[in-house]
């Protein structure tokens, strides 16, 4: 029997143009997939329907083709699979692992500020620098919750992270991108650093964290290759995989391509956008050189003869 193929994926959000950072990420990812004789999938992470557009999606596919990246099956578009995420959210609700959090982002910030003014110590921040959810309403009775919801108060479904961690104990994942001295190897997940993250919203029954773990499982992803900025989020992903009984891919978090100011490139990166570089007459080889990658292997030398999944 043939061993199951390795499955890699690139998962951009169509809320802006791809830039040099994406080019580096997808080229490393695609190359690793082809060298492993694996499949390479494209997933369109468009749950934020207010910011994602089909126009950006088309442009992403066009830029990838220009870069020489191909994918093996039709892209999975997250906005077409809300029922999958809703089912996962429901399973977590049945296990009493999520609760409605009624504080808005502004209220959380104001709470942290008040705490810092009163106590003279810093309110804890998550790895992205946002104040942790105060979780005051984690302890509301079900009657109080229902009343607030009936009164139309806005809320988001939040994970009771401490409860989940107490249930599951220590979890680890394999990290091949970062050297052991930089935190790689078999990594112990630290989901408590994130506090009670949002897993669903009133209008959208999911969040980035929830849909990414559901989709990696649905698509049979075995290798997640992405930027180092998402390394801390892997701790939450690992916890959700354990809660939902999903398989755990291997992770490879690569270095980021930084702008001249030493900061991460953003979606509004202007002249680092692949589109702008193409319009300025640069070719795929120029882009490879700009992100420090060697010339592309000769056409066909690494591509799969046929796709196992069609
Ligand atoms: N959609 C995410 C982004 O564009 C990437 C998610 C992932 O690779 O896990 O940053």
TrEMBL record:
Pfam families: tRNA-synt_1c (PF00749). Keywords: Aminoacyl-tRNA synthetase, ATP-binding, Ligase, Metal-binding, Nucleotide-binding, Protein biosynthesis, Zinc. Gene3D superfamilies: HUPs. GO terms for cellular component: cytosol. One of its GO terms (molecular function) is ATP binding. PROSITE patterns: AA_TRNA_LIGASE_I. The keyword Nucleotide-binding applies. GO terms for biological process: glutamyl-tRNA aminoacylation. SUPFAM superfamilies: Nucleotidylyl transferase. It comes from the Bacteria. Residues 8-290 form the Glutamyl/glutaminyl-tRNA synthetase class Ib catalytic domain. InterPro entries: aa-tRNA-synth_I_CS, Glu/Gln-tRNA-synth, Glu/Gln-tRNA-synth_Ib_cat-dom, GluQ/Sye, Rossmann-like_a/b/a_fold. NCBIfam families: PRK05710.1-4. Belongs to the class-I aminoacyl-tRNA synthetase family. This is Glutamyl-tRNA synthetase, class Ic.
């Amino acid at each position: 029997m043939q061993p199951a193929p390795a499955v890699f994926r690139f998962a951009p959000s169509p809320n802006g143009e791809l830039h040099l950072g994406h080019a580096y990420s997808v080229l490393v990812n695609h190359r690793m997939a082809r060298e492993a004789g694996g499949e390479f999938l494209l997933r369109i992470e468009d749950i934020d329907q207010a910011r994602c557009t089909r126009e950006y999606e088309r442009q992403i596919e066009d830029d990838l083709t220009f870069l020489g990246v191909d994918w093996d099956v039709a892209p999975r578009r997250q906005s077409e699979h809300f029922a999958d995420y809703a089912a996962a959210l429901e399973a977590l609700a049945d296990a009493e692992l999520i609760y409605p959090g009624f504080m808005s982002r502004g209220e959380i910030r104001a709470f942290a500020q008040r705490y810092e003014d009163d106590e003279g110590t810093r309110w804890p921040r998550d790895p992205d620098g946002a104040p942790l959810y105060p979780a005051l309403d984690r302890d509301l009775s079900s009657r109080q919750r229902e009343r607030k919801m009936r009164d139309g108060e806005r809320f988001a479904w939040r994970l009771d992270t401490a409860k989940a961690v107490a249930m599951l104990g220590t979890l680890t994942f394999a990290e091949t991108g970062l050297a052991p001295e930089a935190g790689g190897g078999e990594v112990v997940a630290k989901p408590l650093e994130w506090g009670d993250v949002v897993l669903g919203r009133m209008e959208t029954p999911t969040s980035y964290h929830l849909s990414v773990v559901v989709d990696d499982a649905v698509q049979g992803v075995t290798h997640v290759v992405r930027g180092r900025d998402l390394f801390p989020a892997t701790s939450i992903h690992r916890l959700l995989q354990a809660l939902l009984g999903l398989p755990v891919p291997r992770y490879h978090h690569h270095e980021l391509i930084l702008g001249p100011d030493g900061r991460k490139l953003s979606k509004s990166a202007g002249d680092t956008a692949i589109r702008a570089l193409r319009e300025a007459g640069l070719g795929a080889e120029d882009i490879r050189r700009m992100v420090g990658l060697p010339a592309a292997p000769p056409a066909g030398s690494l591509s799969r003869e046929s796709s196992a999944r069609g």
